TrEMBL record:
Cross-referenced InterPro entries: CDP-alcohol_PTase-I, CDP-OH_P_trans, CDP-OH_PTrfase_TM_dom, CDP_ALCOHOL_P_TRANSF_CS, Phosphatidylglycerol_P_synth
Family according to the record: Belongs to the CDP-alcohol phosphatidyltransferase class-I family.
Pathway where it operates: Phospholipid metabolism; phosphatidylglycerol biosynthesis; phosphatidylglycerol from CDP-diacylglycerol: step 1/2
NCBIfam families: pgsA
UniProt name for this protein: CDP-diacylglycerol--glycerol-3-phosphate 3-phosphatidyltransferase
Keywords, ordered alphabetically: Lipid biosynthesis, Lipid metabolism, Membrane, Phospholipid biosynthesis, Phospholipid metabolism, Transferase, Transmembrane, Transmembrane helix
Transmembrane segments: 12-39, 60-80, 86-110, 122-142, 148-168
Keyword Nucleotidyltransferase attributed: no
Cellular component, GO, one term: membrane
Taxonomic superkingdom: Bacteria
Enzyme class: transferase
Length: 174
C-alpha cells in the first residue's frame, strides 16, 4: 500500500479518537486530533502527486475520509450546540447529495471520475477552518472573529460547491 493511502487511512482511524476525546470532554485533545487529521488531508494528496503514487483507491478513499471526519465533527458540535444544527444539516445534505449523484451515475453506467473541483477543495478547507474555529472558541484559546462569520462562509461555499457538483452531474447525464 502506498504512503498517501496509509496517511488517508490514518485520518479515518483518527475519527474515533476525536469522537471519544470530545465525549470525554477532552476538548484540547479533540482539537489536536482534528488538526492532525486536517493536516493529513493536505499531506496525502500532495505526497501522492509528488511521488507519483496517485491511485484509484486513494481517489475514492480521500473524499470518504473527509466526509467521515467533517460529518462526525459537524454532528458532534451541533449535538452539543456549539454550532447551529442547520449548518450541520447543510454540510451533511450536500455530502449525501454528492454521494447519491455518484451512485446514480454508477447505476446508469455513466463513466465519471472521482475528482474534487477547486471549489469543492476550498469548501473542505473552509469547513475545516470552521470546525477549528469552534473548537478554539470552546476553549477560549484565541480571540476570533464572531463564529457567525465562519458559519456564513461555510454555508455559502457548501451550497455553491453542491450546486457546482449538481451541474457537473447534470452535464454528464445529458
Amino acid at each position: 500500500m502506498s504512503w498517501p493511502n496509509l496517511i488517508t487511512f490514518l485520518r479515518i482511524f483518527l475519527v474515533p479518537i476525536l469522537i471519544i476525546a470530545f465525549f470525554q470532554k477532552y476538548i484540547c485533545l479533540a482539537t489536536i486530533v482534528f488538526l492532525i487529521a486536517a493536516i493529513t488531508d493536505a499531506i496525502d494528496g500532495f505526497l501522492a502527486r509528488r511521488i507519483k503514487q496517485t491511485t484509484t483507491l486513494g481517489a475514492c478513499l480521500d473524499p470518504i475520509a473527509d466526509k467521515i471526519l467533517l460529518s462526525s465533527s459537524f454532528v458532534l458540535l451541533a449535538w452539543y450546540k456549539y454550532l447551529p444544527s442547520w449548518l450541520a444539516v447543510v454540510v451533511i445534505s450536500r455530502d449525501i447529495f454528492i454521494l447519491l449523484g455518484g451512485l446514480l451515475l454508477f447505476l446508469f453506467n455513466i463513466p465519471f471520475e472521482v475528482r474534487p473541483s477547486i471549489l469543492g477543495k476550498f469548501t473542505t478547507f473552509i469547513q475545516i477552518i470552521t470546525i477549528l474555529a469552534v473548537l478554539i472558541h470552546i476553549q477560549k484559546l484565541l480571540p476570533l472573529p464572531p463564529l457567525s462569520f465562519f458559519y456564513f462562509l461555510t454555508l455559502i461555499f457548501t451550497i455553491s460547491s453542491g450546486l457546482q457538483y449538481a451541474y457537473i452531474g447534470y452535464k454528464k447525464i445529458s
